[in-house]
Write a structure and sequence with these properties.
The complex is a heterotrimer of chains A (283), B (457) and C (458). Chain B is mostly helical. Chain B has 18 helices and 3 strands. In chain C, 78% of the residues lie in helices and 1% in strands. Chain C has a two-stranded antiparallel sheet. The two termini of chain C are 55 Å apart. Classes of the chains: A alpha/beta (283), B mainly alpha (457), C mainly alpha (458).
């Protein structure tokens, strides 16, 4: 795994080549359903404020990319949607976040149920120290979604197929998941998230530990998944954002600077800071 | 199910609703399991915490009373009729030292044979003038060592004969039990240690204020005693432990630190180094009793070191402590950032200079803590010392590491086996308090020194 | 006192030699005007070494051989019949001579030969001491002059000093190896001697332990079956683990996963205090508090537990081992990467599901290693069992009855004046070897597992 990580993420060798890349993404139509709404969200870690009054709407069946320099709060904001910030001691979230019109920060909402609806894929592939099969079956099993062995096998196969991993692993489902390559591990983690049947998938820099080839495979997968899921993607690679997303949000120092269709953000940024970042002057 | 995915939005929403329903149904059970698991964890942590509290509570509650003992405060008249002794011999010109010593010993023996108990009896009788209590009963409430206290007073100051002086004598162990109530007062006569007259006398004296509780400072200044348990003390065991600690500090700390430095900084990566490494890790987990066998076979049998001597004990404890110190020192050496090493080497320091001038000073707090903890561990060790004869009864304070001696933890072992359970049980707990107090202060010292070191940097 | 003076002299000589080397190297440096290979301190240290090492050698020789030589020379002057008788009269005579020579004098008449021998003794002592001093001075001075002459700009003093330092370091790390060799050799040697009295099969597979009392030089008159002791050891260790594993592991889980930082910072060190308490304290606690408590509780409930029993010792030993398991497991659980925990939470698992199904399986090898280390500790524990298990080496399966273990029997057989010729005390070494081999295997396996586990997450 570490040997692959050495290859590093794809480098932005030419930041001005965005136009070519963007030609592949189309702006989404105005009548798309809004899945997630955030209003005046503030996040504090102890005394420091990590997110400063952010409001935004995230559309269904599309990829929304969060970009910005390191420490700008994009990951923190992403973690608000499935309340992963709850696991960090001293973190406090203010404001209102709704998914399909339901406030997810009401006291009577169970985070377990919320997280079953909102899958998450992490920066480093983190398969459990179990077999490939058990990794994928983990979620359905704990939530009681499968009762028989047959049901489990069905869910595992379907999820692996969706994650584009089935062909590669179908003959070694009972080998440990940690034995796969980095890109395969990350797709295994995506399959694991899909297996629970989420409506939203949060991806926190899913390709940052992968080599360019594995990254391309994952990006392709993200593009396919968008037909069925709402995807929010945090990335430090502007090219990746441009390649796979339909909406892009630019964060800086805990603030949302600009949010709009990907094509518009990259070609005609409304804000000076966005332009500086995209052209490589900051970040 | 694969078709459903393709059959459009509404089917998907149905499916999602069904999933949510299933998940919600399971929530109650899962929350309950969560609560059970969590409370099991809490219960475990609380019981572990509770054990500490019970253990320490029990030790303190049982041991503290033993720090106070019954004393008899009265006046003794050194009756010249009873204390009829000649002048102490002095070294005559032309007399050999050996001859003089013999005469002096004979004189001391004569002095000891004087009827000191009669003085004690008389002193106590004045507090119970009309009682017809017998001599045995009177003497049974006084520590048997009291007569030597009077004798030593006379030897030190012969002019005292004929005078009446105020004095504080220890009560006997049985009197102590009776007054403190550590023996059941309702037991029938034949199961009591003191005669009914002696018990009545003790009560009367206690009421008068002649018998009263005093802090048992002799616990720290006297040596162990078989005939006079009340005046037995820990001084011998304390000195034995001290000698062993000194040996451990002088040997284990430098050798341990040096081998840690070698293994961590100099040793080439080869089979021998691997072997030493595995060997040290194993040595750290070898039962202490095996070290005792080593001591008995090698130090006593082959090298001919004296049995029961702190020297042999100290060497055994040194070997036992060594792995602890090596392992802890190595881990603090490993924690030194490589940047510091590179900086030193970059400035042209040799490897040895880099280690001794730059790396080692940073690890002083760690090494210090490791050493103190190792010494504290050695201080509490008992089993190996039993195998090299340190459980022998020793009535003198050892003056060198070659003298016979015992140690604090061994003293606990010796006292717990004493037949006078009522008296020695609290006493053993008191010894445990002393031992734990020493260990705690060593640990506190480690913490204090470390914080001072860290502040200075 | 004299050793104090000696040490002071050594230190002074060392300091002087160091200074001379230091100033000489400065002179050389100034005279040649060139760069010295090594800094003056190293030249000083080298000169000091050349001076002090011969001194120390002479001192050690004198300490080792001085008394022997003296005695030999003095004995030569004694009447031959006394020397031939040897034994107690000879050593008594030597004591008298010693006393006369030291000026204390003796009681009774001083025989002419005694006086002569005493004078001889004084003389020999004086000459030997003088010889030692002269030899030491000559050698030290020689070393000093030689080392001082060697100082040139090119002398690689630093390398030489570093070589000496390295040699010392290597010597120190060999001590640990020597310890192990010492343990193995002495145990094996005495065990072989024991097996000349008792057949190994009778020892390892015998079910009766009854060595009788040691009669000096007596042949094997008792039975030396080890199985009752081994069973007692296993039973007590088993009871201890039954207490320590659940409590220790759950404590580790609670403290590392659930407890707020403040609770953790109080409870963790307090629980670890249990590990620092000497085992004799636990033993006494078991004997006077836990044993009677268990026994009276059982009586109230209508059955019987002996005050000293396998149960008492096992329970208290379990308490002793709790911190051992809890702090090792705590470390191991904390080494499980946080990403794995987050992955499970992200899928909607509850905390306990995450711990049971992800963290514990990931930490399992490490925890197993920790438990094996704890077992080896339980098996080697002596004082608790010695005080609280009742020392009754009979093959019994009831934990409420007294029992005995390998460690206790080692102590019991070595008690008092151990005569190394009788099987009654030699058996202690055979038991010790058995114990050593068992714990060694456990330790090697445990350390291997823990090491593999650490490497996995590094």
């Amino acid at each position: 795994m570490s040997r692959r990580a050495l290859a590093g993420p794809p480098q932005n060798t030419n930041r001005f080549a965005m136009h070519d890349v963007l030609s592949r993404t189309k702006p989404i139509s105005a009548d798309t359903r809004i899945r997630i709404t955030a209003r005046d969200v503030n996040v504090f870690y102890g005394a420091t404020q990590a997110i400063r009054t952010i409001s935004m709407d995230i559309p269904d069946c599309a990829v929304t990319a969060f970009i910005g320099p390191s420490g700008c709060g994009k990951s923190t904001f992403l973690r608000c949607f499935n309340r992963m910030n709850d696991t960090i001691e001293g973190a406090r979230v203010e404001g209102r976040i709704e998914i399909d019109g339901e406030d997810i920060y009401t006291p009577d909402l169970d985070v377990v149920e919320l997280r079953a609806r909102i899958g998450m894929v992490f920066q480093k592939p983190n398969p459990f120290p179990k077999s490939i099969f058990d990794n994928v079956a983990y979620g359905p099993r704990i939530h009681g979604l499968v009762r028989t062995r047959g049901e489990t096998e069905e869910v595992v196969e379907r999820s692996l197929q969706r994650a584009g991993l089935w062909k590669e692993v179908k003959d070694r489902l009972h080998e440990p998941g940690t034995g796969l390559s980095g890109g395969q591990q990350q797709r295994l983690c995506i399959a694991r998230a899909i297996a629970v049947g989420p409506e939203v998938i949060l991806m926190d820099e899913p390709c940052s530990a992968l080599d360019p080839i594995a990254t391309a495979v994952i990006e392709e997968l993200i593009d396919e998944l968008r037909t069925n899921y709402t995807i929010v993607l945090v990335t430090h690679s502007m090219q990746q954002a441009a390649r796979v997303s339909q909406k892009t949000a630019f964060f800086h120092l805990g603030k949302l600077i600009e949010y709009g269709d990907t094509e518009q953000v990259f070609t005609r940024p409304a804000e000076r800071q966005t332009e500086d970042y995209i052209s490589g002057k900051i970040g | 199910m694969a078709e459903i995915d393709k059959s459009g939005q509404s089917a998907m929403i149905d499916q999602a609703d069904e999933r949510r329903h299933i998940i919600r149904q399971g929530l109650g059970r899962r929350r309950r399991n969560e609560a059970i698991f969590r409370s099991l964890g809490l219960a475990a942590a609380l019981s572990a915490f509770g054990f500490v509290v019970v253990l320490f509570g029990n030790i303190v509650a049982s041991g503290l009373p033993a720090f106070w003992q019954v004393n008899i405060e009265t006046e003794v008249t050194f009756d010249p009729e009873v204390v009829n002794i000649e002048e102490r011999p002095v070294l005559q010109p032309g007399q050999s030292v050996a001859e003089y010593r013999r005469e002096d010993l004979a004189w001391q023996r004569r002095v000891s044979l004087a009827n000191w108990n009669a003085l004690i009896e008389a002193a106590i009788r004045q507090h119970a003038p009309d009682s017809d209590v017998d001599t045995r009963s009177i003497l049974s409430i006084v520590d048997p060592n009291a007569r030597f206290v009077l004798r030593d007073m006379v030897i030190e100051n012969p002019g005292i004969v004929g005078e009446t002086v105020p004095i504080r004598l220890l009560g006997s162990a049985n009197a102590d039990n009776w007054i403190k109530g550590t023996i059941d007062r309702s037991l029938p006569d034949h199961r009591q240690q003191l005669s009914p007259e002696a018990r009545a006398l003790a009560d009367a004296l206690h009421e008068e204020g002649v018998m009263r509780m005093r802090f048992a400072s002799h616990l720290f200044t006297n040596v162990d005693s078989r005939v006079a348990p009340a005046s037995a003390g820990l001084a011998g065991a304390f000195m034995g432990s001290l000698y062993m600690m000194l040996i451990v500090i002088v040997l284990a700390v430098p050798i341990g630190v040096a081998s840690a430095i070698y293994l961590e900084e100099f040793a080439p990566q080869n089979r021998l180094t691997d072997l030493i490494e595995v060997n040290i890790n194993n040595l750290a987990a070898v039962p202490s009793i095996v070290f005792g066998l080593l001591g008995a076979a090698v130090f006593i049998n082959v090298f001919g070191l004296p049995l029961s001597a702190p020297l042999a004990g100290g060497l055994v404890l040194t070997l036992m402590t060594l792995p602890t110190i090596i392992i802890a020192t190595r881990s603090s050496l490993r924690a030194v950032p490589p940047s510091l090493r590179q900086a030193a080497l970059g400035l042209g320091a040799s490897h040895t200079q880099m280690v001794f001038h730059h790396v080692l000073p940073v690890t002083y707090p760690g090494i210090l803590t490791a050493s103190i903890l190792g010494v504290a561990q050695a201080l509490g060790e008992t089993a190996p010392l039993l195998l090299i004869g340190m459980n022998a009864f020793v009535a003198n304070i050892p003056t060198s590491p070659l003298d016979q001696s015992t140690a604090l933890p061994v003293q606990i072992f010796l006292w717990q086996g004493n037949e006078n359970r009522n008296f020695f049980e609290p006493r053993t707990f008191a010894t445990i308090i002393v031992l734990l107090g020493l260990m705690l202060s060593l640990n506190a010292l480690a913490i204090y020194l470390r914080s001072r070191f860290e502040k200075r940097k | 006192m004299s050793s104090f003076i000696l040490a002071t002299i050594l230190l002074i000589v060392m300091a002087l030699a160091y200074q001379m080397g230091l100033s000489r190297s400065r002179q050389v440096a100034a005279a040649s005007g060139g760069r010295m290979h090594s800094r003056p301190q190293y030249h000083g240290a080298l000169v000091a070494l050349w001076t002090v090492v011969p001194l120390l050698l002479v001192l050690v020789l004198w300490l080792l051989l001085g008394d022997m030589v003296t005695r030999w020379l003095v004995v030569a002057t004694l009447p031959p019949d006394l020397v031939e008788r040897g034994g107690a009269p000879l050593s008594e005579a030597m004591q008298r001579i010693e006393a006369i020579a030291s000026g204390v004098g003796v009681i009774g008449e001083v025989e002419p030969y005694e006086r002569a021998a005493a004078e001889r003794l004084q003389q020999v002592r004086l000459y030997l001491r003088a010889a030692a001093i002269i030899l030491a001075t000559v050698l030290a001075a020689g070393g000093l002059i030689h080392a001082r002459r060697r100082i040139t700009t090119r002398t690689r003093a630093r390398n030489e000093v570093e070589l000496v330092i390295r040699g010392l370091l290597i010597f120190c790390s060999i001590v640990a190896i020597l310890t192990t060799i010492g343990i193995v050799v002495s145990l094996v040697f005495e065990t072989i001697r024991f097996f000349s009295f008792v057949h190994p099969l009778d020892f390892f597979f015998g079910t009766v332990w009854n060595p009788r009392y040691a009669v000096t030089g007596d042949a094997a008159t008792g039975s030396y079956g080890m199985l009752p002791l081994l069973w007692g050891t296993v039973m007590i260790a088993g009871i201890a683990m039954l207490v320590a594993i659940p409590i220790g592991l759950m404590t580790a889980i609670y403290l590392s996963q659930y407890a707020p930082a403040r609770v953790r910072s109080v409870v963790k060190p307090v629980v670890e205090v249990l590990a620092g308490i000497p085992t004799i304290v636990y033993g006494f606690f078991a004997l006077v508090t836990v044993g009677p408590f268990l026994s009276s509780t059982a009586r109230m409930l209508g059955f019987s537990i002996n005050t000293t029993s396998a149960l008492t010792a096992g329970l208290v030993m379990g308490v002793m081992i709790i911190p051992f398991i809890s702090s090792l497991s705590d470390d191991i659980i904390r080494q499980v990467p946080a990403a794995m925990r987050d992955g499970s939470y992200g899928l909607g698992a509850t905390k306990s599901e995450t711990i049971r199904k992800v963290i514990l399986p990931a930490a399992l090898p490490g925890i197993v290693g920790a438990i094996l280390l704890a077992v080896s500790r339980a098996i080697g524990e002596t004082m608790i069992v010695l005080l609280a298990a009742g020392n009754s080496p009979v093959l019994r399966f009831d934990p409420t009855e007294p029992t005995s273990t390998i460690t206790v029997t080692i102590v019991a057989q070595m008690f008092g004046d151990s005569d190394f010729a009788a099987p009654q005390s030699l058996v202690a070494f055979a038991l010790g070897l058995t114990l050593f081999v068992i714990t060694l295997c456990l330790n090697i396996v445990a350390l291997y597992i823990v090491r593999r586990y650490r490497e996995q997450y590094e």
